[in-house]
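Technical annex B. To support the medicinal chemistry partners, we prepared a structural model of the target in complex with iron/sulfur cluster, based solely on the information shown next.
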Amino acid sequence: MNRFDYKRRRSTEARVGIVGIGGDNPIRLQSMTNTSTTDIEGSARQIERIAEAGADLVRLTTQGVKEARALSEIKKALAPHLAELPLVADVHFNPQAAYEALKTCEKVRINPGNFADPAHQFKTIGYTDSEYEAELSKLKAKLVPFLDKAKTFGTALRLGVNHGSLSDRIVSRYGDTPQGMVESLMEYLRICKAEGFHNVVLSIKASNVIIMVETVKLLVETMEKEGMAYPLHLGVTEAGNDDEGRIKSAVGIGTLLAMGIGDTIRVSLSEAPEREIPVARLLRDYITAREGHPELNVPANVARSIEESGINPADAIIKISYEDTDRETVMIKAAADFGTLLLNGYGKDIELDAPALSEAERRDIEDGIMQAVRRRFTKPDYIACPSCGRTLFNLEETLARVKAATSHLKGVKIAVMGCIVNGPGEMADADFGYVGAGPGKITLYKGKEIVRKNIPEHEAVDALLELIKENP
Ligand code: SF4
């Protein structure tokens, strides 16, 4: 695999209704609604806006059987020209909801961290080899009937692992590590392969872009060793919003796309979901345009000139120039290019040359990229979920208030997560967490520890600030 010239990794194809993912298909764009599926009209209109923005498929959270059943009503409520738009049900913890969704959706996402294993309690369990094998047999007994049903309905499957939602079984044996994440997925994938179920797309996501990139690379290597080439869905979870969310996503997704990895992408932003699509499209089109045109490949040229100069690549300041006049376009392209180089060991610092941007705009983008790759911290690090049907407060508005109150706290990692079901696990290594605990109720965390429970929402941002001040 060449790290710099765009050449797409060959993968098998998954059929998601009328849309193929992987194989010779273009890289597909997707987003996810943040409505409850029980709000039929609200969900249908949001899907239409996402499709209008250019998504090839749309995902919805279906936390229970009731939410999964509502999908057929949503399909009926869509504008006639979207009758065949593939819908994807996102299921955690509830296999019955996944079974229900198979009947209506073109694809169902399950999380190997919580489909067969119980929700994690952060417990270390000491398994002997034979006890571990017995757990794998239980997993197989739960997964095989589900695969059989998916075959009957012709529904595709996404196996989606997230850093932070691994089962206690996996963490006890492999640690909360890239190897643990890959193994969590491979256990399921080996069963799919053995059962002849190949309509599968895979994802491994993390909010830390370094972990996300390394883990996806490890997954690709592991699959290659085992003779598998299933298509990959890329994304950086909890990337946040505004510039920060765009930069983290462009660094993580852009680095992997530049290496030829990725068959469908989702840029997760804590904003209206349709706003994710233009970012994803720019990223995809920018990188895939390099195919067959190595002279257009900015990172390749920079990397080659570093190599030809004979200097130590890790000591170079990397300078890349952009003629674009739009600030967001420069930011996304620069994050993808500098990210590819920095995450592959080139350069110590970066210099963005973009004549159309002001000095302050250029500096901001450079700082954002250096922080996304964890080389230099100049502001707080926000980890924020994109919101979904489980979200218990207005995430975009709350994130803006938290940012306004904490913008001076350089290097502090603050998580804003919409629900207590997935939030605490997925806020990764945040120093402090603001998590929706119930309607109008917020629970605050210091690291993984709950420090204040069920605070009324209108007091919660001040309480978070107090907590941070008490724990400098
Ligand atoms: Fe939805 Fe956010 Fe909860 Fe994830 S953490 S399930 S995106 S509300």
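Notes passed to the chemistry partners:
The CA atoms of residues 14 and 199 lie 5 Å apart.
The radius of gyration is 22 Å.
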